Amino acid sequence: MGSILLIEDERNARYALKRVLEDAGFSVVDVEDPKEAKNPDSFSLLILDLKLKNLSGIDFLQELRERGINVPVIVITAYANPENIISASRYGVVDILKKPFEREELLELVERVLEEKESSGEPQRYSEGVIVGESKKMVEVFKKVGMAASTDMNVLLVGETGVGKDMLAKVIHEKSHRKEGPFIAINCSAIPENLLEAELFGYRKGAFTGATRDIRGKIELAEGGTLFLDEIGDMPLPLQAKLLRFLETKSFYRLGEERERSSNVRVIAATNRNLRKMIEEGNFREDLYYRLSQILIEIPPLRERKEDIPILIEMFIDRANKEFGTSVKGVSKVALEEAISYEWKGNVRELKNVVYKTVLETKGGYIEKFIFDQECRENVEELLNRCMSMLSEEEYKEFLARAEKSLLRYLLDKYEGNKSKVANLLGISRNTLRMKLKTLGL
Ligand SMILES: Nc1ncnc2c1ncn2[C@@H]1O[C@H](COP(=O)(O)OP(=O)(O)OP(=O)(O)O)[C@@H](O)[C@H]1O
Fold first, then answer.
1. What is the number of structural domains in the chain?
2. Residue 191 lies in a domain
3. In testing the pocket of ligand 1, which one of 167, 172, 231, 418 has its CB within 8 Å of the most ligand atoms?
4. 267 pocket-lining for ligand 1 (C-beta < 6 Å)
5. What ipTM was estimated for this complex?
6. For residue 322, what is the domain's CATH number?
7. What is the CATH number of the domain that holds 69?
8. Which atom of ligand 1 is nearest to the CA of 315?
9. Where is the Response regulatory domain (predicted)?
């Protein structure tokens, strides 16, 4: 049984919580004030009230993490506003319990966290899905994300490739009242134009050749939850008009059907294109833009928030170590400086790839030099050039397919068939990956 540090300044609540936990067999040290908390890193779990008299729980959390104390934390609060939630999640809080809560709810959560800690041997601080960011710009983004989660308005996430739009869309869903509902994503650039409409709105048997049965579209599948329209800038104009109608009326028609249907979904859209410019050029509907951007969140590129680079590197090293079984401890000062001054055109996704690649090479100790994508690319180019110079004209096409096939096979093997992961690493959607695999006979 793990030992728990309980920080709660309200006496009765503290007493009651301690009783519940002790009755369940946990050993508990309870304190009123965080300053009384001796050796917080010696505990298996910290239960922290967010609103303390002398110090905010968030400040205390920040201080803990800065001291390198990675004990898992469950936050209890009567003030579970999105800002608190987002701030807390930045410091690796594993869960938030909103007061009042049931005894069983608390015990279930405590047991789960302690089990996870035991099985991984490490706190879940940097587990998949944890968001980090310390720059002023990202704190502003997190605040907006929190605000977006607390409303049902449409959200437009704008930013370069790899800045975290997809990840933030999921966070908004997970922190919203729709979290028990589905999160359905559709990538508007990965699906051929004529199929996109059918994918979105569904169709009736016989609506077009190949429509052998009635199919529900993504809009229906997202009922009660969130519909994420990725790469919205690539949606063709005729479909934009139909989407606008849906956003205005919440009703739609399946293709080939006359019956009007409705769906209760919140729409989050994302793009790395300049929609304002597209509007000027007549390629994107202005009315749709305003509908979608009821809350507009612009995520800055990594090169404009370099303060986030060290913590992102730390997180990805931690994750890569867990995934590969390596034991890289950190980064040398020189390597870190080089990473900070690097341009990161592929943003966080590129940084993640570079860290993973370097951890695999380094295996242990400290990273002295990152293997930047740029250098790899140059080596690959040299190698490919050599191969290509040996090809005859008839072999070009086959060469292309073989190269793609080998890469995909390698990645699928490496990530044990995890298609989402491979698609993510290649910067393509799962659908595009599926189509490629089919074409290549994999
Ligand atoms: N602040 C962050 N903290 C932790 N991980 C992050 C952060 N930002 C991005 N990532 C990670 O970086 C990768 C790329 O993020 P994501 O796929 O959300 O980007 P995107 O903006 O949707 O890219 P694209 O436009 O190419 O679809 C993901 O693995 C994501 O988890």
1. 4
2. yes
3. 167
4. no
5. 0.98
6. 1.10.8.60
7. 3.40.50.2300
8. 4
9. 3-114
Confidence of residue 326 (pLDDT cuts 50, 70, 90): confident
Is 232's C-beta closer than 6 angstroms to any atom of ligand 1? no
**What's the predicted TM-score (pTM) here?**
0.67
What's the 174 CA to ligand 1 centre distance in angstroms?
16
| Average pLDDT score over the chain | 87
Question: CA 287 → CA 231, 249, 263, distances in Å?
Answer: 18, 14, 21
Confidence of residue 113 (pLDDT cuts 50, 70, 90): confident
Range of the domain at 273: 136-298
Q: Which atom of ligand 1 is nearest to the CA of 133?
A: 1
